[in-house]
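Lab notebook, bench 4. The sequencing result for the construct came back, and we need a structural model before the next group meeting so we can plan mutations. Quick request posted to the team channel:

Model the 3D structure of this chain.
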Amino acid sequence: MQVWGGGGGESLAVGGGGGAPAPSAELQCLRGGSPGCSGVDWNLRRSYNFFFPQLYSSSLDGSIKLWDFMDGIPIKTFTVGSKLLAMYALASFEDSMFVVIPKSDTFQLVSVKLTKAAGQDLEAKELSVVLDGVDASPKCIAFGREGEYVASVKEVNLQVYFFKRKQLNRFSVSAAKTKSGNNHFMCIACHPTEDCIATGHADGKIRLWRNFYHKKEYTFSTLHWHHDTVMDLAFSLQGSSLLSGGVESVIVLWRNESERQRDFLPRLGSAIEYISVSPDGTLCCTLHTDNRITIINSNLRFSRSIQGLIKSTNVKTGLVVDPRTKALVLNGEPGHLQFYCLQSDQQLFSLDIVQRQYIHQAGLNQTDLVKVAFSAQGEWLATVEEREEVTDPELQLKLWFYDEETQSFKLNTRISMPHEDHITDMCFRDMDEVEDESLILVTTGSDCVFKVWVMVEDTDPEGNVSWSCDFVGSYHNYQATNCCFSEDGSLLAVSFEETVTVWDSVTWDLKCTFCYSPGKIRNICFGRLTCSKYLIGATDHGFLCCWNLLSCALEWSAYLNIVVLQPDPLSEHIAAISWLSKDSSLFVFKPNEPRPIYIQRNFCKEKIQLAVFVPREEPETVGSAKYLWLRRSQLFFLTATQELITLSTKSLEERLTPSSKQLAVEESLPVTPFSLLLGKHRRHQSQEDIDLGKLVVCNKPEQDSPAVKELLHTPAHVLPSASFLCPVFINSLLISKGNTSAEEVADEVEMESEKTEDDSDEERDVTEMEQEDTSPVELLGEITCKLSKSQEKELRKLRKMDYSWISAF
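Done. Here's the predicted structure in token form:
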């Protein structure tokens, strides 16, 4: 994902394939674009001494789109054909775009000529190669002042191409690896007013290149602060300062190209991936690896942050739903839990669980958050954090209570080393929390036991409560892997490798055991509602099993290579996701039915790691019977590349807004005063037509003409000239010959009758004309209305009027 500032510092464009950021400011989503956005850039178009920003985007499908970024709709689509990996727009090249395309085993920077022809879908096949052997990353290409030259870096090579001279100079640095790292180029930026190139390297150094017009007399100076890779560089508006960022989560401001004159803005949360400066120089923004955009003032002061779903390196906690807010809860920043609202696409808040400073350095064993569980009403939160050590892991079980006054969770109990080895699973008993005695937490561990934790009253006068261990269970010294409670909380199921044990949650007596070989139990869950007598399990060998708790026998089994098993908390349905032939498939079933009620094969090319049912605020109206299982809950998936996807009950046509499929704004959108006036005029005109008894033709050029829609709904700064639009507009109002051939025949007959006969014989002429018109009109299947003599006379006068003056427009 990349960010670009534009529109005089008032607009910010974000493009990429990652999760979209949430709107902490006013956010306009550009929908209707091609999948796999590879680049976004602003271009300033000059018209009458004014500059208007235009937003372009490129996609991996080989298309470039021009957007109306105020309304969020595409205006034009240019089909290039090749896969576009990066895109650059320059004001000095108004009719061209620069894109990076693949070529055999390498990549090329080419110039694409954008045609000015009318229409919305155009082809741009005129390509010219600028540089060969470039890097596919957009950070590795930069354009010099006023577009005089372009510079590209790859590995240890720097090449500069001058457009006017058509000269190419190549430079290189030493490939020898030093103690601080290698010298490989990682990013590049060009000075806006001087001939200076800044390059960032993998060893944390920044080199400033000058006099590169000559192949041998070039010079460079070095700036060094970063201890690791320099991720991106950006010059200020006038070039007086240079911004750099890396894995330290610190943005460095270098003044006057001096190591002594530098300022810092630390603790930005995560590694900085991209840096962009607004055209007016008042703001800069940074894009971070955790899917956050930070907006910073020119004096290096924090302004605001735009945060969506934080992209974590590894979601160890799984996907959990907060019962209070219905937010999605999972790993966020290192050591934090993020509460993410799916409806508004924004982060509600972040809870610091580990409460330790995270050090951005590879190879360090740092405390990480691995497990999380909520009680039924969301009053209690249990978390597990661990730190990998060479000998023994450090474990902590923390229980948090929700404070109504502060509207946040407060730490209640901290338990060090609750198990002697890793905690594999934990769950609360889902019962009414009015009585604290019914609240139970169960944890399972690799130390071959499961433990039951209950609340006890403290001895202090305030009467606070804490948590302590009440029972420890085991089974043949097998590792405990999973646990879950039945719907009424009376039974606890704990899996020990290949065996599932069922325990009484009051006496903690072992009731029965189930086993299905081969394979260890990967997931288990109880049925709900009418299917509460069933227990379902999935093995790591791909088998899905269903046991009957009343008969203590296997009900059915199937081989589907199930990797995720997720029950719906509001219905009997259970979602099972399989991984077969490098595709993920979805099976939704009820335990009491032998066949799935819904199958979606190959719905995702990536492996699904996690899934969760999120209750809807209101039951959704489902048109198709096959989606009835999604009426009360919505199913979300998380892929291996940290993409959050979901199933929709609506078709693609229903999900796409009309504005994204066509240029015009439909009637369902809010009307403007002009449209109200135009609609009133149309209604008045139609009423006059009815009063006069005129024939109402089904042709509506004023409503269906693309020219009229483009003229009324396209922003003025992207419209073609008036001399081009006016003939198109006038022609759209004319009635085509093919639709009015019968009327033209009637007009010719009528004009001939007027030339040969007097007005006194008008009535007889009209009668003859009607007889001649009957046959062609009847052949077309139209119905005519007989007009009075006064109406016919008025019609003749209108036909004799000269309308040739319209052609002048």
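The mean pLDDT is 80.
Will bring this to the meeting.
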